[in-house]
Design goal:
0% helix, 9 strands, 176 residues, mainly beta, seven-stranded mixed β-sheet, two-stranded antiparallel ribbon
């Protein structure tokens, strides 16, 4: 926010005119900080099978994985080699009953709101769709997301994820 104030004073005597002008400028800068959730504990997802590789008709080598059993509700961060964030658009390819079109699972996740959280926005509620067998959003799981920065100033995302409804449904991420 920038505020500028200008004051002009004119004084006239019988032979002298004096004009005084004063300008004051003040600037306010808003500094964004990490949301409190960014400094709380979270789990790392860095499994190679989670990385999105669009393969029309399915990957030639497919070992399906899932996030139902053994996966606990909580905050997660994707890190390479798994990718770094959930897709915000439905998958480019998911054809019939082929598996591993997107990553090494049948039904892959994407954010229904079609946007990432912005830094400084705080935690937002999201709906996570699972694309499978001609359905862009076969079913949804509720979740949360927040944008954070690490000590070097690099942006990353945290997601509150729930176990999936069954096998083989998984949280896959886009890479850099």
């Amino acid at each position: 926010t920038t505020t500028t104030t200008t004051t002009t004073t004119t004084t006239t005597t019988s032979t002298t005119t004096t004009t005084t002008s004063t300008t004051t400028t003040s600037t306010t800068t808003t500094t964004l900080f990490n949301d409190g959730q960014c400094s709380q504990g979270y789990n790392i997802l860095n499994d190679t099978w989670r990385k999105v590789h669009y393969n029309p008709g399915g990957a030639s080598s497919c070992s399906v994985n899932c996030d139902s059993s053994g996966f606990s509700a909580g905050w997660y961060r994707f890190m390479e080699p798994a990718g770094f964030k959930l897709p915000i658009n439905q998958p480019s390819f998911f054809v019939g009953s082929n598996i591993c079109d997107v990553c090494q699972t049948h039904a892959s996740a994407w954010v229904k709101e079609e946007r990432d959280p912005t830094y400084g926005e705080g935690v937002i509620n999201i709906n996570i769709c699972f694309a499978w067998n001609f359905f862009a959003c076969w079913y949804t799981e509720p979740g949360k997301a927040v944008a954070c920065k690490d000590n070097s100033g690099s942006l990353f995302y945290l997601y509150f994820l729930n176990p999936t409804a069954g096998c083989y449904h998984g949280y896959c991420a886009l890479g850099s």
